[in-house]
Design a protein that fits this description.
Blueprint (H helix, E strand, L loop, with lengths): L1 H18 L4 H22 L4 H16 L6 H24 L4 H17 L4 H21 L6 H22 L4 H28 L5 H29 L3 H28 L28 H18 L2 H4 L3 H11 L11 H23 L11 H15 L18 H23 L5 H11 L5 H29 L3 H18 L4 H18 L5 H24 L5 H27 L7 H18 L1 H4 L6 H29 L12 H21 L7 E3 L22 H16 L1 H4 L3 E3 L3
Parallel strand pairs: 1-2
Helix pairs in contact: 1-8, 2-3, 2-7, 2-19, 3-6, 3-7, 4-6, 4-7, 5-6, 5-16, 8-9, 8-10, 8-11, 9-10, 10-14, 11-13, 11-14, 13-14, 16-17, 16-21, 17-18, 17-21, 18-20, 18-21, 19-20, 22-23, 22-25, 22-26, 23-25, 25-27, 26-27
Length: 747
Amino acid sequence: MKAAAGPVRARLRDRAAASDPGLLRLTAGLRTAGSIALAVAVLALLGTDVRHLVAGALAAMVSTFAIREKQRGPQAVTLALGLPVALAAMTLAAVLHSRVVAGDLFFVALIFCAVYGRRFGDRGTALGLIGFQIYFVSLFVGATVAELPELCGVVAVAFVCSALVRFVLVPETPAGVLQRLREAFRARLAQLLSAQLDLLDAGPEDVDRALEQVREGTARLHETALLIQGRLAQGAADETVARLVQRRVADAEIAAERLGLSLLRARGAERVDTLALHLPGAPVPSGGREPPRDEATVLLRRDLQALHLLVLRPVDRAGGTSVALVRNRLLGYRDEENLPDVSPAEQDVFRAIGEAARAVLGLRIALGGAQDETDDTPATARSREELDAEDAVLDAGEEEPAQEPTGLRRPTTRAAVQVAVGSSLAIVGGELLSRDRWYWAVLTCWIVFLNTASTGEILVKGYRRLLGTVLGVLAGIVLAGAVGRHTWTAFALVLLFVFAMFYSAPLSYTLVSFFVTAALGLLYTLLHTYSLSVLVLRIEETALGAACGVIAAAFVLPVQTDRRTNELLATVLRRLGDVTRSAVDQLSGGPPVELLDEARDLDQALADLRAAVQPLTHPVTPLRARRETARYVVALLETCAYHARSLAATAELLPTHPSIAADPRLRRAAARIEHNIEALCAHVTEEHSTAELHTGPSIASLLGPTASGVPRYGRVTDRVLRHLQRLDEGVAGLARPLGVPVKASDG
């Protein structure tokens, strides 16, 4: 039984790691709910009344989720600075409680300062958030000057409890988070390989479902790779280790996607360019015909299962040579003479399996796995030598700091002005609706500006908050009737909803709003102020606050969605041009550069663009043609980014891979791609650009003539040419949706 329990626990652990990379959502939920529970327990033992218990619970929640730093030292400093800020906000709210005009003016000033403070980084953001939220808490509980000593004590207890939970009960270190993210990457890689196995065996009736699982697995793997990238600086032992892990994660990600594409081509799918189409509803490639059940299929299934085994059972955990033998066989597919005698498309799958096995080996070594060289074949030994040679040339380059806009062009200044204006409107409108609950409109106006940058994004976020609020009110009506006057039952449900709110935060803002509103219904019950009219008023105030936010965003220093998306589109095109140019230069014999940093910058730019086009691609968007155009453009950019990343990964192998050598002719062949990317960028950024895209012969034909008796492509692999050709076609495909003229040329 014990022997069987081990694999079961391992599977459950891998599943948890894959569903919540780094356990970031679980940690956030446990930490916030734990802080509230501890604060309420301590305050209850001190004999605090229910109204002040609610204040302590809210203060504990704010002091927990406001902290943004990743290192424990800065977290402690920010938490210590946050306490006097919270006490000052509570005191001023109590003093101004009976002075309506002065209180409203101070609240608007506080909102402006809180948003403007974001320009000072995570600490400025946290202190501003604490000041605003504690002022809001004081309004919620009706703080008065007479209650100040007790309320300040409650806030202090809440901050201490938050610190205990953060640093003692639910500790988190950057190194620990990075380690869990590594495990999540491994688990998601294993899940993607399982999905690829299902795709290999899928019949015509279930091939679409299998393909969708492969696409989803590819996107989830990419998401985890970006999370690791964001944690490397704080979690790695030093810069060299960080860059080593970054390179190996990128290798594994690209190798896994290449394997999926090779499988689709082996099934007979036409014109498959990439699997990383992240937008919902984006077009998907065909799954192809059902593969014949021949010997090649049996071999492919066996080797995909073996690759899956390598991911789940590294050699240093297996305790035997069987896994090493499997690894050696798969790495042998990197040599042409070891490929089975099957069709060219199926041979390409075996090559991809060999490269994926190499990536898994490199990833295991980079993450501290044992070397275990006793059973190495020549192919495996050569792969290790290549990995060592690549690691030896790692160089930590320094990035130039980006110049930040000044004045009202600075995003934090513009947002502060917008929120101040929107909040002023919300205060006026909110007080017309209710002189006691007007602050709900202000809170909504504040929230819709968080992590948004354009009018369209604010509109979508306001819609989601309103929808979640309506659903939460309905749930609150049911729960309030069920709980009645049972105080501790209500507190327990509030804790459950708080945990669910933070656990679901990265997944759905509508869910967050639902859980918040349901919890508030219970808090109103505890405060004996619950009524159906109060919950209906919350919906009205929420709608008003969202409307005020949209009005302020649309008329005060507006950033239109088109302008925002054009800026981000230009950034993506520039990053795409940088990666392509650097990769081609290195493949043409130029000096080595840090290609993976440029590739990750491209990935981040694409992620920002995907977030910015959400208002254009949202299901409620009335402009359907515009929505489809936005989806099509992002899908093409995903295709281009995949081929650019693959070129970068191939260029990284140049110093050590025996089948890849520099070919100066590639510069001329890729010149058209670089020109077209620049033309697209000029068209997006310049109102009257006359730049044209060039089309013409295939990339391979542009390599030019060779001397008699010399192979046409030298030692440049077909893979490089295929990626260049697909990149050329993808960039040219952007001309139509972006309205760029096209001119046929000879090169």
